[in-house]
Structures are given as structure tokens and as C-alpha cells.
Amino acid sequence: MKKCSCPKVLETYAVMEKNLLKVIDLLQYEKKNLIADCNIKISNIEKRFMSKVSEENLKLQSLSSEILQQKILNHELENRLKVADVNLKLAFVGSNNHLALRRGKIFCIDEERMHDIKMMVNKLYTKISLKLKQSEFRDDIDAYEIQNIIQSLRSEITTITSEGG
Questions:
Q1: Better-predicted residue by pLDDT, 105 or 155
Q2: Sign for the pseudo-dihedral over CA of 17, 20, 22, 24
Q3: Could you tell me the superkingdom of the organism this chain comes from (predicted)?
Q4: Rounded CA gap, 160 and 56, in Å?
Q5: With the C-alpha atoms ordered 149, 152, 158, 163, is the resulting torsion angle positive or negative?
Q6: DSSP secondary structure string, the chain?
């Protein structure tokens, strides 16, 4: 009869089981390390993302503030233009001017407002002139005509404001 080699097979399986358990332990350890590394990387990405979101929110708040300031300035300028328009219309009314004065309907533009209007006209003229110089006009006549129109507009406004002030 043959001698049974069951104990050797069992011993071999026991060694293999031990080795597999060691491999499983190593894999679980690696898994924990990989999860920890991934969590750290995710945390870093979240921090950078939140930082970028904060930066963009600050930029957005700044732009919103600038837009609000511009709206307020535009509203104020519209009001000043309405007052200037009323003054200009009343200046051409002639004899009705005296009646309007008696009724208190003429809005006077003080020197400070007149100076502000002149400064705004100058700034507008400068900005438009710079834009014209910076733009790539292929036809020099167009740019020249536009500059002439702006110049004549500026002189007309200056004349009107100097008469109204």
C-alpha cells in the first residue's frame, strides 16, 4: 500500500494559507495608505478650489461695487444733464424767462457742478480720442471725421456750459 501524504499536503496548504494571509494584510495596509493619500489629495484640491471660489467671489463683489458706483454716477449725471437741459431751454425762452424766474422754476447750475460737467466732457473726449488712436482704422478719413465731430461737440458743449454758468 501506498503511504498517505495527507499531512504533507495539509502542511503545504497551511503554509500557503499563512502566506495568503500575509499578502491580504499587506494589501489591506496598502489600501489604507492609498485611501489616506487620496483623502489628503482630495482635501488639498478642495482647499485650492475654495480658495479660487473665494478669489472669484471677491472679484465679483468688487465688480458689483464698481457697477453700483457707475450706476449712481450715471444717475447723477443724468440729473445734471436734465438740469442743464432745463437751463438751456429756459435761456432761449426770452421774455418767459422772467416769468419762470418769478415762479422759481429755473434751476441754476452752480460753479462746482459746471466744473464737474466740463471735467466729464474733457474725460469723455480724452477717452474717445485714445480709443480712436488705439483702434485700427483702415480708412483714415473715418477717424479724422469722427475726431472732428468730437471736437465740434466738445466746443459746443463748452460754449453752452460757459453761457449757462
A1: 155
A2: negative
A3: Eukaryota
A4: 45
A5: negative
A6: -PPP-HHHHHHHHHHHHHHHHHHHHHHHHHHHHHHHHHHHHHHHHHHHHHHHHHHHHHHHHHHHHHHHHHHHHHHHHHHHHHHHHHHHHHHTTTHHHHHHHHHT-PPPPPHHHHHHHHHHHHHHHHHHHHHHHHS--S-HHHHHHHHHHHHHHHHHHHHHHHHH-
Q: Enter the C-alpha cell of residue 162.
A: 460757459
CA distance 84 to 89: 9
Closest CA relative to residue 164, chosen from 156, 121, 3: 156
Phi, psi for residue 138 in degrees, rounded to 5 = -80, -30
CB atoms within 10 A of CB 14: 10
Give the pTM.
0.38
pLDDT at 107: 47
139 vs 160, residue with greater confidence: 160
Q: How many CA atoms lie within 13 A of 12 on its CB side?
A: 5
